[in-house]
Design brief:
The complex is a heterodimer.
Chain A (H helix, E strand, L loop, with lengths): L12 H22 L1 H11 L16 H29 L7 E8 L2 E6 L4 E3 L1 E5 L3 E8 L4 E5 L4 E5 L5 E6 L4 E7 L12 E6 L1 H8 L5 E2 L5 E2 L24 H11 L2 H4 L18 E3 L5 E3 L2 H9 L22 H13 L21 H4 L8 H4 L12 H4 L6 H13 L2 H4 L18 E3 L5 E3 L2 H9 L22 H13 L6
Parallel strand pairs in A: 1-5, 4-10
Antiparallel strand pairs in A: 1-2, 2-3, 5-8, 6-7, 6-9, 9-10, 11-12, 13-14, 15-16
Helix pairs in contact in A: 1-3, 5-8, 7-8, 12-15, 14-15
Chain B lengths: L17 H9 L4 H29 L10 H36 L8 H23 L13 H5 L4 H28 L12 H33 L12 H35 L6 H14 L15 H29 L8 H24 L1 H7 L3 H31 L5 H28 L13 H31 L43 H7 L8
Helix pairs in contact in B: 2-3, 2-4, 2-15, 3-4, 3-6, 3-7, 3-8, 3-13, 4-6, 6-7, 7-8, 7-9, 8-9, 8-10, 8-11, 8-13, 9-10, 10-11, 11-13, 11-14, 13-14, 14-15
Classes of the chains: A alpha+beta, B mainly alpha.
């Protein structure tokens, strides 16, 4: 047993305000709970049947009394309602300059990642005097992120983001609890929130540590310089990997998103510059503010809301990306907007020694394909059967295939110029293709067919296996049209 | 005509063999016998739920998990919650006292649908059987709230069995509500107008409205959990394309009104007790009656206050908070009117009155802390902590169980024809009151300190409060066991009660104790309001008091 705590510590800007309201509620309660029982006690003693007192003219109703004890409690509840309402709105309105921290809850641990890439398990380090905003999601069931000393709590749901913000006011270690029952080890799903001075925080932020990744693997802490910017796996190799926005950018490129979402505009997908934090208009005419949940939905279930002027051609990434990866893509999309909040670099740097390793290490690797090569998008047109002089193809089907090639967004990656994320398809038919495992194959009809329905089976040398698998999305007839279109692009020997 | 024959008590019958005797109970359509069936089965479940609670409290004496594994603990508090909510609190007052008293209080022969009434009891028992089976074969670990997607996808326990139990029990509740509504509308004795009805009837009427309107929603919600669990249809689990919050909306759309299913009939009991033992018409009859209806209606519009931190929008948070403030008012009106009833009454400290006074004391605390929780900014800190646990135990245990016990004592002479032991009655009421406060008051402090609920192990600084709470729970347990003993003994050794031991004005006291199967020899004709005490009744009662008379 440990002392006799009576009141929780106040360690955030909310704590004092909420406690004040709490004390007001206590005082009003005492007005009733402290007085009414004594009134009752007085009455049951004074009017006990053994007491000879005046009982003449008993009342059995009185409108003025009824109104009195209806209106006074009503007024009091309205006072606490409005007081509480203003406080609540404040608690739900984060200031502009916040430090974003991404939180993933899972049975039974908390995983957090800071914008500079630093990760933690069951811990959260925050600086004093800075507003911190948690962007949280769960990998499985509903959890709840609760820091009693800050008086903040927010459920963490699977399949969407919830957010929470606070500003710590007192250096120290505080309890972090999971407050929503989540199964066997619910009681131990918690840890510590450490509030640090700015200087300590800065130093901590740039020091690697060992963490357990959301997928369960353990990663020893070391500063990894990102070596491969085009990889289907995000660089999550250390607790201090890439800044999230950079990791997101790399993912954005390696997944091929940049083929369509051309920041200069003109791509098959909308430019993502200044999307986050702005109203978006959709094909059905409705509008919505692009917040975290909108970005998340647009990645995982892209057809749900299609931006006006664009076709629903983007593949849905549901099931193909981890929450971790979605967080990084989100961080990247936010970094493209002037309303995307602030990067960790704006945390006042204290002392020259605290230069962020994360800010310097991967800088050279960040040349993004997306922005460096704004691509003119050609319209896919089948070469006429006669002009190609190659193998025969069905011009009718090829025309339809051409349309499909554009609509599906294939054209975004498979650029004729050869600079796309996918190989140019010009003259591919019947040519000899070198695959990533070094073997060669003749690009016959069967090969083209397979490359569409099961794109990762044989990947062309120097390209990444990032093309979506269209097997389940296309009808046989449609695949055939695409094959005919590819054939129409000419064949080897021409 | 056999009007001269002695009225036969509903308890006795012509059965000559044991089998016949058992049949005469299990196939009875007499509302009074069905009430007794409920009394026995509900108390059985109460003891079971109480045992689970004891295990939980004993485990929590130390901060480590030394008595039970985490899984065992989770199953234990779930068992406690499921049993107490679905199989004790919701049916307690309506199914036992309501069943026994609604026809008697309105001068009717029986409920409108006696067979459906029996069916309700069988549904209740059937549901209970499923829940018990689930418990015996390993239990369930979702908490009584069955939150998705934990319950629908992740839990490896007997979710389906338990949910089936609650689902079936729901129909018992719906049918009882239906029966009461029809009975109260159609079977009141001649002259018994709406504003002559006892407040217990008003309260049960309001309760029945909630039962038939809200319970189907729970049934649907639970059924959908089953569908998702069995066939992986995406309804609640986002991994399958569902929405986890949808369940919470459906669940609380029932389960918040369910709180009023528990407390409204209890308030009805209290109105009866306060009036009888003050020997006065209850103060502000119309206000108490309409406050019941107001609570029933507003109770449907506040479910979102269980979801303030669930990611509800700010606007819905504010709206739900506002309506929650409003629902506090009719509850306050009742408390003030009960207090005013005492003024210039002739108060006696009989056991039912002690329970009623205890109810008021505990309900004041339970109700006021409800306002704390209704203020969103404060709720964010205290929701899902022991503050909430303490609050709803003050309302459900401090409210419903105090009223249930008070009602059982008050109508015991009518139900059994015998008086219970007054001294032991007084002792039990005091022990329950003290034990209850010792158990749950420390939980408010602990909750504001930040102790989350449903924790099997906890940080050491909370231990002092858990120890206090467990100590109080031991006293509370004794307080619940004492009445079981002396009430049982009273069946054999209690004084013969007579028809109207409390000199109370209700219709139920005009027939014999225990009442005959057909309730009234002649249909009573009502010419005056309920609580028709003579204006001098309180004065005369006090004049007649002599040292040595009951206090």
């Amino acid at each position: 047993m440990q002392g006799f705590p009576f009141f929780p510590e106040q360690a955030s800007t909310f704590a004092g305000q909420i406690d004040l309201l709490y004390f007001f509620l206590l005082a009003v309660s005492l007005l009733f709970a402290g007085v009414l029982p004594f009134v009752i006690l007085y009455l049951i003693v004074r009017y006990h049947r053994s007491q000879k007192v005046d009982r003449s003219n008993p009342m059995s109703s009185d409108l003025r009394l009824e109104l009195t004890w209806t209106i006074i409690p009503l007024l009091l509840t309205m006072v606490v309602f409005f007081w509480g309402a203003f406080l609540y709105i404040q608690m739900r309105t984060p200031p502009k300059d916040v430090i974003d921290v991404y939180v993933i809850g899972k049975q039974w641990m908390w995983h957090t990642q800071h914008a500079n890439g630093k990760r933690e398990n069951n811990e959260l380090h925050v600086p004093i005097g800075q507003s911190v905003r948690l962007i949280m999601t769960s990998q499985d069931v509903i959890h709840s992120f609760y820091i009693p000393a800050f008086r903040v709590k927010q459920d963490v749901l699977p399949g969407r983001y919830t957010t929470l913000w606070f500003e710590a006011t007192k250096v120290g270690d505080y309890h972090l609890f999971c407050a929503e029952y989540c199964g066997t080890d619910h009681a131990v799903m918690g840890g510590t929130v450490t509030v640090m001075s700015l200087k300590d925080y800065q130093a901590w932020l740039t020091t690697p540590g060992q963490v357990i990744m959301p997928d369960g693997s353990v990663q020893a802490g070391q500063v990894l310089v990102n070596t491969n910017s085009v990889s289907s796996e995000p660089q999550v190799g250390s607790s201090l990997g890439d800044p999230m926005a950079l990791a997101g950018e790399q993912l954005f490129t390696s997944l091929g998103c940049s083929g369509c979402h051309i920041m200069a505009g003109g791509g098959l997908g909308p430019s993502l510059k200044n999307v986050f934090g702005y109203d978006q208009q959709f094909t059905d005419g409705s509008t919505m503010l692009a917040d975290e949940n909108y970005v998340r939905e647009s990645i995982l279930n892209s057809a749900a809301k299609v931006v006006q002027g664009y076709q629903p051609v983007m593949p849905a990434y549901q099931g193909q990306l981890s929450d971790d990866q979605v967080n990084q893509l989100l961080a990247y999309v936010k970094s493209l907007s002037n309303r995307g909040g602030t990067a960790p670099a704006t945390v006042p740097t204290v002392g020259a020694g605290a230069t962020s390793a994360a800010a310097t290490a991967p800088a050279g690797t960040s040349a993004p394909v997306a922005t460096s090569a704004p691509l003119a998008l050609p319209t896919a047109t089948p070469a006429s059967g006669g002009a190609s002089g190659g193998g025969p193809f069905n011009a009718d089907l090829a025309a339809k295939g051409s349309q499909l090639f554009t609509n599906l967004g294939c054209i975004g990656c498979h650029q004729d110029t050869g600079v796309g994320l996918g190989p140019s398809l010009k003259g591919v038919y019947n040519s000899t293709v070198t695959l990533s495992d070094g073997s060669t194959i003749t690009a016959d009809e069967a090969y083209i067919h397979e490359s569409i329905v099961n794109s990762t089976a044989k990947v062309v040398k120097d390209y990444n296996p990032i093309m979506p698998v269209y097997g389940s999305q296309l009808k046989d007839a449609e695949v055939q049209q695409l094959v005919e279109y590819v054939k129409s692009l000419g064949s080897a020997g021409n | 005509m056999s009007t001269t024959a002695l009225p036969q008590s509903y308890m006795t019958n012509r059965a000559t063999t044991t089998i016949e005797w058992i049949k005469s109970w299990l196939f009875t359509v007499d509302h009074k016998r069905i009430a007794i069936l409920y009394l026995l089965s509900i108390n059985f479940y109460f003891l079971l739920g109480g045992m689970a609670a004891s295990m939980v409290r004993i485990e929590l004496v130390t901060p480590q998990g030394d008595l039970m594994s985490a899984d065992m603990y989770n199953r234990m508090f779930t068992l406690h919650g499921v049993i107490m909510v679905f199989f004790f609190l919701i049916p307690a007052v309506p199914a036992v006292l309501g069943n026994f008293l609604v026809p008697l209080m309105i001068g009717a022969r029986d409920l409108a649908f006696p067979r459906i009434n029996l069916l309700s009891w069988y549904l209740y028992m059937g549901g209970g059987l499923f829940a018990l089976t689930a418990a015996v074969f390993g239990g369930v670990d979702t908490g009584w709230t069955f939150y998705t997607p934990f319950s629908s996808t992740y839990s490896n326990s007997n979710v389906i069995l338990t949910i089936t139990g609650a689902f079936i029990m729901g129909f018992s509740s719906i049918l009882t509500g239906l029966n009461f509504i029809v009975t109260i509308h159609k079977m009141r004795a001649p002259g018994l107008t709406w504003f002559r009805l006892p407040l217990f009837i008003w309260a049960n009427y309001a309760t029945s409205l909630i039962q038939i309107l809200a319970t189907p929603v729970l049934g649907i919600a639970l059924l959908l959990v089953m569908v998702e669990r069995l066939w992986h249809v995406g309804i609640f689990d986002p991994a399958l394309g569902g929405d986890p919050l949808l369940f919470q909306h459906l669940f609380w759309f029932y389960s918040h009104p369910a709180v009023y299913i528990m407390i409204l009939p209890a308030m009805g009991v209290i109105s009866e007790l306060i009036s009888t033992f003050s020997r006065k018409r209850v103060f502000g009859y119309e206000f108490i009656a309409f406050s019941s209806i107001a609570i029933a209606i507003l109770g449907f519009l506040v479910w979102g206050h269980h979801m303030f931190v669930s990611s509800q929008s700010v606007y819905s948070g504010l709206v739900f908070s506002f309506i929650t403030m409003l629902v506090a008012i009719p509850s306050a009106i009742k408390v003030f009117n009960w207090t005013a009833t005492l003024y210039k009454g002739s108060i006696s400290y009989r056991t039912p009155m002690l329970y009623a006074l205890g109810f008021i004391g505990l309900f004041i605390i339970g109700g006021l802390t409800g306002i704390f929780l209704g203020v969103v900014a404060v709720d964010i800190h205290v929701t899902d902590t022991y503050f909430v646990v303490a609050h709803f135990h003050y309302v459900m245990v401090g409210g419903t169980i105090m009223a249930y016990l008070g009602g059982i004592h008050y109508w015991w002479p009518k139900m059994t024809g015998r008086m219970y032991n007054e001294v032991w009655g007084t002792i039990s009421a005091l022990v329950v009151f003290i034990g209850f406060n010792m158990t749950f008051f420390p939980q408010f402090v602990m909750g504001y300190l930040g102790m989350p609920r449903r924790y099997h192990v906890y940080p050491e600084e909370f231990q002092i409060y858990h120890v206090m709470s467990t100590a109080g729970a031991s006293i509370l347990a004794i307080g619940f066991i004492i009445p079981i003993i002396y009430l049982t003994l009273s069946l054999r050794y209690g004084k013969i009660a007579g028809d109207n031991p409390w000199d109370a004005p209700g219709l139920e006291w005009t027939t014999t104790s225990p009442p005959p199967t057909y309730n009234f020899e002649q249909t009573p004709i009502v010419t005056e309001e309920a609580y028709a005490f003579h204006p001098e009744a309180a004065h005369e009662d006090a004049e007649n008091w002599r040292p040595g008379s009951p206090l």
